Amino acid sequence: MNDWQRKSPLDWETYVNKLVKVVAVEKHEYEGWVLTVDPVSATIVLATFLENEKGSVSFIMGHAIQEVKILQEGDSDMKQRLARISAPEESQAYSPEELEKRKTALKTWLETNHIPVGEQGEQGRTLSVAGVLTIEPPYSPEQCSSTNEIILSRMQGLLQGYLDQQR
């Protein structure tokens, strides 16, 4: 076990959102912004940004890491860029008010089409359809969940049709 693997998750956390240089076995060197460190394998996840704003993610296995050197602290803009890499695209696009509006509109549409719907969860953010399907924010087909594959598929199709009409 190397020095990097011996560190604790709290030690690894100090590297998150920082530009680092990683020296791995056979003198391979990697440079990038630390997204996270896997606490089980000590694998470091690095993000690099190309000129066209596209991001690239690399994984350096914990057992191969020989040295990690911090080159630069991340500012708030960089922290936001890094957070956008791992956050789902749609969840960033909506404010709490917009999500509430989407939920209300979808619930009204479902009720108008005689589909039994209710709200569940502490803040009522989750829509429950006929007690067998749930729809989480931001209320698109990808956020539908059900153990019944047929109901899931049909509801996702209906929801996609509804969203297409809204555009």
From TrEMBL:
<keyword id="KW-0963">Cytoplasm</keyword>
<dbReference type="Pfam" id="PF20417">
    <property type="entry name" value="Gemin6_C"/>
</dbReference>
<comment type="subunit">
    <text>Part of the core SMN complex that contains SMN1, GEMIN2/SIP1, DDX20/GEMIN3, GEMIN4, GEMIN5, GEMIN6, GEMIN7, GEMIN8 and STRAP/UNRIP. Part of the SMN-Sm complex that contains SMN1, GEMIN2/SIP1, DDX20/GEMIN3, GEMIN4, GEMIN5, GEMIN6, GEMIN7, GEMIN8, STRAP/UNRIP and the Sm proteins SNRPB, SNRPD1, SNRPD2, SNRPD3, SNRPE, SNRPF and SNRPG. Interacts with GEMIN7; the interaction is direct. Interacts with GEMIN8; the interaction is direct. Interacts with SNRPB, SNRPD2, SNRPD3 and SNRPE; the interaction is direct.</text>
</comment>
<dbReference type="GO" id="GO:0000387">
    <property type="term" value="P:spliceosomal snRNP assembly"/>
</dbReference>
<dbReference type="Pfam" id="PF06372">
    <property type="entry name" value="Gemin6"/>
</dbReference>
<keyword id="KW-0539">Nucleus</keyword>
<dbReference type="InterPro" id="IPR046856">
    <property type="entry name" value="Gemin6_C"/>
</dbReference>
<keyword id="KW-0597">Phosphoprotein</keyword>
<feature type="domain" description="AD">
    <location>
        <begin position="69"/>
        <end position="167"/>
    </location>
</feature>
<dbReference type="InterPro" id="IPR009422">
    <property type="entry name" value="Gemin6"/>
</dbReference>
<dbReference type="GO" id="GO:0032797">
    <property type="term" value="C:SMN complex"/>
</dbReference>
<dbReference type="InterPro" id="IPR047574">
    <property type="entry name" value="AD"/>
</dbReference>
<dbReference type="GO" id="GO:0097504">
    <property type="term" value="C:Gemini of Cajal bodies"/>
</dbReference>
<protein>
    <recommendedName>
        <fullName>Gem-associated protein 6</fullName>
    </recommendedName>
</protein>
<keyword id="KW-0507">mRNA processing</keyword>
<keyword id="KW-0508">mRNA splicing</keyword>
<dbReference type="InterPro" id="IPR046857">
    <property type="entry name" value="Gemin6_Sm-like_dom"/>
</dbReference>
<comment type="function">
    <text>The SMN complex catalyzes the assembly of small nuclear ribonucleoproteins (snRNPs), the building blocks of the spliceosome, and thereby plays an important role in the splicing of cellular pre-mRNAs. Most spliceosomal snRNPs contain a common set of Sm proteins SNRPB, SNRPD1, SNRPD2, SNRPD3, SNRPE, SNRPF and SNRPG that assemble in a heptameric protein ring on the Sm site of the small nuclear RNA to form the core snRNP (Sm core).</text>
</comment>
<dbReference type="GO" id="GO:0000245">
    <property type="term" value="P:spliceosomal complex assembly"/>
</dbReference>
